[in-house]
Amino acid sequence: MAMKVYGLPMSTNVARVLPFGQVPALQDGDLILFESRAISKYVLRKNNSELLKEYNISESAKVDVWLEVESHQFDIPMAVVIYKCLILLVYFGGETDVKVVEENLQKLKKTFQVYEERLSQVQILSWRFRQLG
């Protein structure tokens, strides 16, 4: 059976087994996954990809660290900015809290500086070295 990826609208049968009703979702036989990072890791492992560097515990740990960095240092402040600047205004008629937006933009600026420093030290998507995180 081929893997199925679900977005919106999602069938009621799939939505029923997802605890948060989130998309994306992936179904591979009886296995149904949600959370994009879990889906990404599953697909990579299933296809024996080297992007997770699982053949080397130190390299694999580095991938894990950068996946966590993205999860905590980028996703959270970006979600706040999107909510305060778009969702709150468009869907709820609220007002943007400029102070909260500025605080989170500063967090993102620092995160991007760390990313730039990191990217200047590694070869990304080159033929010699690739990784997911």
TrEMBL record:
Q: Which UniProt keywords apply?
A: Coiled coil, Transferase
Coiled-coil intervals, chain numbering: 98-125
InterPro entries, per the entry: Glutathione-S-Trfase_C-like (IPR010987), Glutathione-S-Trfase_C_sf (IPR036282), Glutathione_S-Trfase_N (IPR004045), Thioredoxin-like_sf (IPR036249)
Where the record annotates domain GST C-terminal, the positions are 56-133
Entry keyword Iron? no
Q: Does the keyword Coiled coil apply?
A: yes
In Pfam terms, one family for this protein is GST_N
Q: Which residues form the GST N-terminal domain?
A: 1-51
SUPFAM superfamilies with a match to the protein in the record: GST C-terminal domain-like, Thioredoxin-like
Provide GO CC annotations from the record: cytoplasm
- Which EC number(s) does UniProt give? 2.5.1.18
Which example biological process does GO assign this protein?
A: glutathione metabolic process
Query: What is the protein's name according to its record?
Result: glutathione transferase
Q: Name its species.
A: Leersia perrieri
